[in-house]
Design brief:
It contains five helices and ten strands; from the N terminus they run E-H-E-E-H-E-E-E-H-E-E-E-H-H-E. It is an alpha+beta fold. The protein has two domains: about 90 residues, Alpha-Beta Plaits (2-Layer Sandwich); about 140 residues, 2-Layer Sandwich (Alpha-Beta Plaits), CATH 3.30.70.660. Strands 1, 2, 3, 4, 5, 6, 7, 8, 9 and 10 form a ten-stranded mixed beta sheet that branches. Strand 8 and strand 9 form a beta hairpin.
Length: about 250
């Protein structure tokens, strides 16, 4: 009997070439596929909620795979964690409805980007933040972030290569953003964004553009003009992958 297993994963993406299987490169999907195969004896390619980039982390990525294994779903947690590298952990495993798909069934996602503002960044923190100790107008950055809430065409904030769309959507670049906020806690400045879906590099390109606002190179109101331009060259540079986390997938 074919079953549909849903996994919730956490991973440190620092040493992986992203989610999607690639030749001659360690990926989350490939490593997970190999581990599942060792347990079930099947050739399985788990499907994730989206393709996180090289160096991007996840607190609760969701993946699904089909199997004929009779193993109780909850047993996949220990079995997989015994095989997987310490940088990938299975947090939950459940039997899902036959029509449930990690990506196609997703209704929204939350991403968080971490910037460390202190003068010296600990080596034990460096791979999980963007170290940016320079002067920033954080109030202006918050104003700019609020301007992307709502439904917009995010072409200006999407990677030029359409093959890289993290939601595997090659058509419309319109997405709805429900929440977009900066928050300061100690030496850490974090950006949290919740939306219906995200394009390739979209969050990192938003962060890179908000940094330009913080530096005074852009006025907050110019974010609206950048959205309207629908040109990648209108927005800022892509922020480093190290600070980005997939926090949650909503269904």
């Amino acid at each position: 009997m074919l079953r549909n297993i849903q996994l919730v994963l956490a991973y440190d993406g620092s040493e992986f070439c992203g989610w999607q299987v690639q030749p001659n490169c360690a990926t989350i999907q490939g490593t997970l596929s190999s581990a599942i195969g060792r347990i079930t004896g099947e050739k399985v390619l788990p499907q994730g909620s989206g393709r996180t980039d090289a160096g991007v982390h996840a607190l609760a990525q969701v993946a699904t795979f089909a199997t004929e294994s009779p193993m109780p779903a909850e047993n996949f947690v220990k079995a997989l964690n015994d095989i997987l590298p310490a940088s990938i952990r299975v947090l939950e495993a459940n039997d899902a409805a036959a029509d449930f798909h990690a990506r196609k069934s997703a209704a929204g996602k939350i991403y968080r980007y971490r910037i460390y503002r202190g003068s010296i960044c600990s080596p034990f923190l460096a791979r999980y933040v963007w170290h940016y100790p320079y002067l920033l107008d954080e109030t202006a950055m918050q104003h700019a972030a609020s301007l992307i809430v709502g439904e917009h065409d995010f072409t200006s904030f999407a990677a030029v290569d359409p093959e890289g769309d993290s939601d595997e959507e090659k058509g419309s670049k319109v997405r709805r953003i429900f929440e977009s906020i900066w928050a300061r806690e100690g030496d850490e400045l974090t950006y949290t964004v919740r939306g219906s879906g995200f394009l390739h590099h979209m969050v990192r390109n938003l962060v890179g553009t908000f940094i330009l606002v913080g530096k005074g190179n852009l006025l907050p109101e110019e974010i609206t003009h950048i959205l309207e331009a629908r040109k990648r060259s209108s927005a800022g540079a892509t922020a480093p992958a190290s600070g980005l986390f997939l926090v949650r997938v909503d269904y």
